[in-house]
Amino acid sequence: MNSTDALGEALKDVYFNSAGEDIIVISDIAEDDIIPTDYLFRNYKQMPKLERKALDLCFGDVIDVGAASGSHSLYLQEKGIKVKAIDISIGAIDVMKARNIENAELIDFFELKEEKFDTILLLMNGIGIAGTIEKLPEFLNQCKSLLNPKGQVLLDSSDIAYMFEEEDGSKWVDVNKNYHGEVVYQMQYKNTITEKFNWLFLDFNTLKNEAKKLGLKTEKVIAGSHFDFLARLTLE
After folding, report:
1. Count of the separate structural domains present in the chain
2. How far apart are CA 50 and CA 127, in angstroms?
3. Which domain holds residue 119?
4. Cα 128–3–108 angle (5° rounding)?
5. Domain membership flag for residue 172
6. Structure confidence by residue, pLDDT tens digits, 156-182
7. Is 149 helix (H, G, I), strand (E, B) or coil?
8. How far is residue 133's CA from residue 24's CA, in Å, rounded to a whole number?
9. CA of 98: how far to CAs of 41, 69, 85, 104, 107, in Å?
10. DSSP-derived secondary structure for 184-214
11. pLDDT tens digits, residue range 103-161?
């Protein structure tokens, strides 16, 4: 679990204190970026089309992985869908429980065992929790182990190859990485900062090819406006 819960501190500040500064996102491939904290409390109409489409496709017993403030889970719960929301942020769980999400649990996705779901929901580049291309098979196998026979995995990601393009059309390559979508992040909120963690951005073809090796069929449900996509994985 994170001992430096920047995300959780931000969520609590917004929800309990009606205040909140931007979350600063530090990476090894770009200048610092920000996440406006109120964005993490968006409602269905404020969500990007990929997220809305994913929520529309959810059925059966759903697990919302990396649920943060629980906005996706809250929407599904209000629609009468049974949903379990998980996160590794203690603050996130506190906020979800305060928002009356019925089943919010502090647990790492990779620690889940002996449970089955009809829909595994991984939004906001949820596949990022795989961390690296090397660990992608472990992530996909964990999805398989938690999936009911006719279930589905809904996830979005982005191909960030465009970030490595030069003005002349050539691309520079980081020889220290196995795949261009591997990023090292830290998150900072006020004086709270996380340790460095690995995060994976994946192009669709790589996802499809790696999933096929493990007996998963991959469908591109919808493409976003900037190299992003929503994918649906099912058991072959």
Report:
1. 1
2. 14
3. 47-182+198-235
4. 40
5. yes
6. 999 998 887 666 655 556 656 789 999
7. strand
8. 25
9. 13, 10, 13, 10, 18
10. EEEEEETTEEPPPEEEE---HHHHHHHHHHT
11. 999 999 999 999 999 999 999 999 999 999 999 999 999 999 999 999 999 999 999 98
